[in-house]
Design goal:
The complex is a heterodimer of chains A (about 160) and B (about 290). Chain A is an alpha+beta fold and about 160 residues long. Helices cover about 35% and strands about 15% of the residues of chain A. Chain A is built from 5 helices and 5 strands, in the order E-E-H-E-E-E-H-H-H-H. Chain A has helices at about 25-30, 90-95, 105-120, 125-130, 140-155; strands at about 5-10, 15-20, 50-55, 55-60, 75. Chain B starts with 6 loop residues before the first strand and ends in a 5-residue tail after the last helix. In chain B, strands 4-5-10-6-7 form a 5-stranded antiparallel β-sheet. A 4-stranded antiparallel β-sheet of chain B has the order 11-12-13-14. Chain B has a 3-stranded parallel β-sheet with strand order 1-3-2, covered by helices on one side. In chain B, strand 12 (about 195-205) and strand 13 form a beta hairpin. Chain B is about 35% helix and about 25% strand. Chain B contains 12 helices and 14 strands. By secondary structure, chain B is α+β, with helices and mostly antiparallel strands. Chain B has helices spanning about 15-25, 35-40, 75-80, 85-90, 90-95, 105, 110-115, 125-130, 150, 230-235, 240-250, 265-285; strands spanning about 5-10, 25-30, 50, 60-65, 70, 135-140, 145-150, 155, 160, 165-175, 180-185, 195-205, 210-220, 225. Classes of the chains: A alpha+beta (about 160), B alpha+beta (about 290). Chains A and B meet through strand 4 and helix 4 of A and helix 2 and helix 6 of B.
């Protein structure tokens, strides 16, 4: 099978690799670029664990081919904390509010929350639940997750660092 | 849980896409991929060729011309959902799209992709059906034809297009600004496929009687249904619970399917309730002045 040479701008860095056309973006991030923070759960678009931002909007990286991301800007969970390792406001809020248990869904939850808070600084609880409706938490820890997103929104509105 | 191997093609124009479709055996068109990629990952499909139309220009225009809304087949659902002009001119589309999958899938999923996938429980085909939408289809050689949504639905998940044709756009004749609308569905969880869905459009005359009405039901049978008999019975009538219930009874004549989410009679019962409620809501919105 012919491989394609692609370059994806991941977390601000141009990353080149060669992929079979059938390789999904999620597998490419994990296996070709060693960015294993993006988790693949169901691999058919239901669980949301593999959510990343593609050109600024959330997308399921299992439902997109890596070859389709050629030239795109992709942001993954590895690009959320600051370069010095200090946590993003949303990550801090997840820790403070027990928004993660096993942690499998967390990267997808945080990428979705990043998109939501980027377009709506003051979401209601219902809006948060609607936004994360495509992300399944297998620990069923939704109370903590919703609290974390609302807390992060409040912190950001109060002037916390915006990512 | 990985796609089977295929040859990947990335045409740069509609003509090139149709030429590829005409010349390649066992090819599939990849639009937003929010259904096709899942089917490939699950290996429900083994295409020899995948034709990615995401780089084809001219497929993502939203335009309102007179009493017609035209949307390119490759337009992302999220963009349609948030478009101010669409929300004003055809509010049922935003109401239905809010129930379509999740924001992550709407960010990539396209209108044309949903119509061609033609899932019987999907929102967009049902809305296109009750809106008497015209589907524009391009063919190898450059011809474009237009066909009503009712004809486009050939059968279960089967659009009436030839192997060398590509859906390029959808034209929705707009209803008067005073029309009422409603899209209601019942799903196990928000964003899941509907067990049943009902979509209605309605205008009232000066005396408050039902003037125009369109009713559709999704999720019940193998294809989305238009309830012509129910519409005919309502025209010229005074709106009210009894009239709406009578219209919903026409669902008895339609085939209902069973699956592990719900039996046929359960689905029919939900669908009837949704039709009654959707008619009542559309009527309320029409009385209140229709499109806000």
């Amino acid at each position: 099978m012919t491989e394609f040479d692609i370059t994806i701008n991941v977390n601000g860095e141009a990353r080149a690799c060669s992929v079979e056309p059938r390789m999904t973006l999620g597998d490419c991030l994990r296996h070709k670029l060693s960015l294993t923070g993006t988790h693949l759960g169901c691999e058919h678009g239901v669980c949301g664990a593999c959510t990343v931002l593609v050109d600024g909007v959330s997308a399921r990286s299992c439902l997109m081919l890596a070859v389709q991301a050629d030239g795109a800007e992709v942001r993954t969970i590895e690009g959320v904390a600051a370069k010095d390792g200090s946590m993003h406001v949303i990550q801090e809020a997840f820790r403070r509010n027990h928004g993660l248990q096993c942690g499998f869904c967390t990267p997808g939850m945080i990428m979705t929350a990043l998109e939501l808070l980027g377009e709506n600084a003051d979401p209601t609880e219902a809006e948060v639940r609607d936004a994360i409706s495509g992300n399944i938490c297998r620990c069923t820890g939704y109370m903590g997750i919703v609290a974390a997103v609302l807390d992060a929104a409040a912190t950001l509105r109060a002037g916390g660092a915006r990512g | 849980m990985k796609p089977p191997p295929f040859e990947y093609h990335r045409p740069q124009s509609i003509e090139e896409t149709c030429a590829l479709l005409a010349s390649l055996e066992n090819a599939k068109v990849l639009a937003g991929g929010q259904s096709l990629m899942a089917m490939l990952n699950l290996r429900y499909l083994y295409p020899d060729h995948l034709i990615d139309i995401n780089k084809v220009p001219g497929l993502d225009e939203i335009a309102i011309t007179g009493d017609r809304l035209s949307i390119g087949a490759g337009t992302r659902q999220r963009r349609i959902e948030l478009d101010v002009g669409v929300r004003r001119a055809m509010p049922i589309l935003a109401e239905g799209l809010a129930l379509t999958g999740h924001r992550q899938t709407r960010n990539r999923g396209t209108l044309g992709g949903s119509l061609c996938h033609l899932d019987p429980a999907a929102e967009q085909p049902l809305i296109a059906l009750i809106h008497d939408a015209e589907v524009r289809v391009a063919k190898a050689g450059g011809q474009i034809r237009s066909m009503p949504m009712e004809k486009f639905i050939a059968g279960f998940m089967q659009p009436a297009i030839e192997f060398d044709e590509l859906v390029v756009g959808v034209d929705f004749p707009l209803w008067p600004a005073t029309h009422g609308y409603a899209f209601l569905e019942r799903a196990r969880r928000h964003g899941d496929f509907a067990l049943a869905a009902a979509a209605c459009l309605m205008t009232l005359d000066a005396a408050g009687r039902i003037d125009r009405v369109a009713i559709g039901v999704g999720g019940l049978g193998p294809v989305p249904y238009r309830l012509h008999a129910g519409e005919g019975g309502l025209r010229g009538q005074a709106p009210g619970e009894a009239a709406f219930a009578a219209a919903a009874e026409h669902l008895d004549a339609l085939e209902a399917v069973s699956d592990f989410h719900g039996g046929a009679e359960y689905r029919r019962s939900i669908a009837k309730a949704l039709v009654r409620r959707a008619l009542a809501l559309a009527c309320k919105r029409a009385t209140a002045g229709g499109v806000q």
